[in-house]
Amino acid sequence: MEAESKTEVEPTVTPTEDERELARRVLAAPLDERAAGIGGATTVRGYLVALLWTLWDENEGFSPKRPFGDSNWELDLHGSLWAAGLVRGETDDDGDLADVDEDEADRLVRLAIRELGEPT
């Protein structure tokens, strides 16, 4: 079986135990200050659940561009994954995240989403 590419995580492919462990680490990662408290969430798991909750509650009024009021909302998770040491990134002179490995961050979020659907 070929290894998954960096950005491809298929929801129907059975994850390896290493992928499941990594996904659990991602889900348990605390939200950084940019994302903390969104939807009452304190972890990546809570953020993803809040996102699904918002989608369900807002139904046709759901804004995929601004689900929590701001655009670039995926950066909430990218920054949190960087702060947790799960993805590479660089800070600017003020110490703010200026660049992050978005492909790897997206892959990790996909692993985490897939793990949410796995039996415990």
Explain how this protein is built:
The chain is globular and about 45 Å long. The chain has helices at residues 17-28, 44-58, 74-83, 102-116, and strands at 89-91, 97-100. The protein is built from 4 helices and 2 strands, in the order αααββα. A hairpin with a 5-residue loop joins β1 (89-91) and β2 (97-100). It has a two-stranded antiparallel ribbon. The chain is mainly α. It has one domain (17-116).
Rg from alpha-carbon coordinates: 15 Å
What structural class is derived from the secondary structure elements?
mainly alpha
What would the average pLDDT be, to the nearest integer?
Answer: 86
Number of strands: 2
Low-confidence runs of at least 5 consecutive residues = 1-5
H/E element sequence: HHHEEH
Query: Main sheet: which strands, in order across?
Result: 1-2
Strand content: 5-15%
| Helicity, as a percent range | 40-55%
Helical stretch tally: 4
- In total, how many domains does the architecture comprise? 1
> How far from one another are the termini?
25 Å
Shape: globular
Please give the largest β-sheet.
2 strands, antiparallel
Descriptors:
120 residues; mainly alpha; 2 strands; two-stranded antiparallel sheet; disordered N terminus
Question: Layout of helices and strands, plus pairs?
Answer:
Elements: H1 17-28, H2 44-58, H3 74-83, E1 89-91, E2 97-100, H4 102-116
Antiparallel strand pairs: 1-2
Helix pairs in contact: 1-4, 3-4
